[in-house]
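hiii, so i know i said id send this last week but things got crazy w the move. better late than never?? heres the sequnce for the chain we talked about at the cafe, plus the structure i predicted for it. fair warning i was half asleep when i ran it
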Amino acid sequence: MGIQDLGALGEFVAAIATVGTLGYLALQIRLSARTSIAEAERQLLTGLHTQHALLWGDEASTRIMLKGLSQGLAHLTDEETMMFSARMSEMVNQYVIAKRMSERKVISDDLRRDVRDGIGLIVNSPGGRQWCANAKWANIAEEFGDLDGTSFQEWFGGLRNAQ
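okay and structure toks below
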């Protein structure tokens, strides 16, 4: 085997190694993307869990939220209205984050729909619709569907029956 044959063999081995390296890098990028998506979904779900704890974590918050959602803002004191509005803003912000993440393909459309449906239950309540109309979220209310509030009424009725 001459020097030219060794050179040709070296080029062949280098080409095989290059293809193998590119395949390995593609696999690593794919795994990294999956990990990033999983982390983004975990952070979104952690935010939703935090919102859930703030909304329903103690008796006073639960009472204010249920009164505001079922009876509307007119039945809340000024302090309760501020708390109600802050919690509603935080909750709708979670949906906006999920929507943007879904549009950028960071999370699945299914997760965005699940977030929308969960928050939509509250947004479609009588107080939720009133809050949306008065807040900067007026243009987002239609994204939640069921604007007649039947889902909320069924859910709230189930809560009352369980007590």
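btw The chain has six helices and no strands. thought thatd interest u
miss u guys!!
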